[in-house]
Amino acid sequence: MTDSDLKKIHIVFNGQDTPPLKISQLFDTTKFNRMTAVTGNITADFINQYLSKFIKVEIALSTPENHDVKTGDDVITKVALTNALLSAANKKPAKIFEALTSDNQANVLNNLFQVSIAPTQAIHSRFYLLSNSETHDTRVILGSLNLDNSSFDDQRNQYEEILVFDNDIRLFQNLDNHYKNDIKPILRPFFTENLLKAAQEQIDESMKDPKGTKNAVVILDNEVTDQIAAADMTDLISHDIQKQIDENKIPALITKTMRDITTNRSQDKEEAERQIQQHDTIYTLQKTAVSPRAAKPKLKSREKIFKQVQDALISGMTPQQRSAEKKYTTFLYDRPMERNLVNNNSGLYVPNDTGTHPIPFGKVATISQIRDGLKSIDAVLKGYQQYVVDYNDDYGKRFYEAILYSFTAPFLWEIRAKASLNPEDGNDIPNFLILGATAGSGKSTLLRIINQLTWNTDRSLIDFGTIYPTETPQKKAKTVDAIEHYMKLGSSYPVLMDEIEPYFFQQDQYSRHLVVDTMNELVNNPHTIAPLIGTTNYDSGFTMLRETARRTYYLQIDKVIDEQQKGEANKYIYNVRQTLNNTLFKDFVMRMASLLEDDDTPWRSFDEKTGKLDFLANTRKLFREYYKMADIEVPPYFADEICDDFKESSRNRWAKLYLTQEEDFKYRQQDRSLLFDISKLNTFNGFTADSIEKYRNALPIELCVDGINGKRGKFVEIKADEFFKWIGERNPYGQLEALVSDEAVANTSIEQPMKEQKKGFWARLFG
């Protein structure tokens, strides 16, 4: 039996094995209108897709298992309370609430949808009670499933048991009573009063705004959610613990356990450093919340605990780190579930001018405005055409591609989900655009132009080298951590990063951590992670690790602005930039949203020459329509295909190496391969210190004998025929191979009969 034949999701319906049911059939809102659940996990996506039509929902979230605790008091302090505090500190309630549709947010605010947690008791129960208040039909669902899509993914290699009992009144009543009498009394709201108050205030503000929408959506900024987290954590300790002590639900001496929680604490060194820091912070918070000198330990006052909570939340950050986090200030939220094209809502939201609530982003432009937008882009390209040395239209396509990518950037995560048949396909839609450029090529100016065309400002750029001061310890690692933080703030507007230093791409611990790990996260769990558009110095020696290059769109801008015309060029581009705005981009997001809503839109368009997925195909289509509407001829610098500049620069590097050092490539006739001593690429021979890795990274694995092993070590072994075809040079050994082959055939068929070869041990044993 193969893995695909195994039944991973086992559903038993009233005692009988059942074919796979859809989630909507299991949680049937056409038959039932109320649900009570005790579950391990719940996601906003699951609520939005499957639970929205219930008129009343109560959900209790259980506690993750912990096998390290030793006593009943440990369960309270190290499992239940720690989990509740971590959830609040990580803003999990706010994140889930924000991800709900506006209708479901309203259901929570109106108390029709309740989610609760148990801050002092570990719950491992799983059951789901569905009922209909009019027909009195009931359904009980038992099993290991959670309220998330992964529980129903039969490709996850995870077994789930689902037992369904329809109209079993005794079982339903038993579990319903258990929930009401035993579980509900120890619960507290997951969506707390502090969160709901902030949400309602934002909705009230939105309703007053003429730019707001009828169904106001709540998106809270970091400052607000920080205050909510601090208040929630304070309430957990100062209110919930004391309340359950007073009601005898937990022992009074639990405060002593809280105070002693850090005693003899064993650390798991294999855990991620951040996770350890989080736990330490929460443990310390519990300990310091109890008076240290009282004969009988008791909780400190609410005011003192609140101050300790605030201090704990920032204790792991230096002033430099807090300053670095504030450098990113541009937010554009993509909310596909709120998309409503009839009401001109693209699904994108931006904070209003005062930052109190989100408002829709996007507006259909007039033909005249579209024409002006295209002319502005043309004026930009004419500047490069006029002042860049050796400019041609093929080179101009790189600038245009960068603009097309920046327009598409907010929707890339949606396009990735629609274009991917398999998770790994997501790597064909890179979340990173890198402009490799020489000094004086206008790369930073292009980044500012992109900012103006999409955000109507040129002040959103972040300078890679100044995120942290030069003297900062571990500056490189901290800089990459800061960029990761910028990308994961929930915004889909690209992070615009100027002057990324070459080490980021060449050293595994940096590029792999950010580029590879981020892309893996995106392809396995599609969600909003802001794309990164960055510039880096090309200096004729730029290279990337192969894994990084696979997940990056690289455009090479290696021609400089004419030094003699630099003053005139600066004046020209300054005047052009005064005319730029984001009117065309606002129209574009409306049209792209329409394509995303259309199930017939094709997202898997492959280039005929390269075979690569053109993830910008629909963007090109929209821009061609723009030119048609504006009655403007499509310019010659318009790119009709993905540019593969990293592959081309790699090819050029090895072609030049072969042509200048042909004698160092030794032909190996029996394997039809070339051996090259890569250690010769050293400073003594005129190369840079990192040349060995640059050339090693630039050599495609498919050209190497024995794959990746052919790239390792002192000698690189390359397939000769494929190598010469790749660099576009004549294979000088091709004719020799033909002569050797003809001679071998003649000798074998005419002069010598074939001799039977002796068989070795393995040949005799296995035939």
Automatic annotation (TrEMBL):
Keyword Iron: no
SUPFAM superfamilies: P-loop containing nucleoside triphosphate hydrolases (SSF52540)
Ranges in a coiled coil: none
Example GO molecular function: ATP binding
InterPro entries per record: P-loop_NTPase, PLipase_D/transphosphatidylase
Signal peptide: none
Keywords from the named record: ATP-binding, Nucleotide-binding
Residue ranges occupied by any PLD phosphodiesterase domain in the UniProt entry: 119-151
Protein name: ATP-binding protein
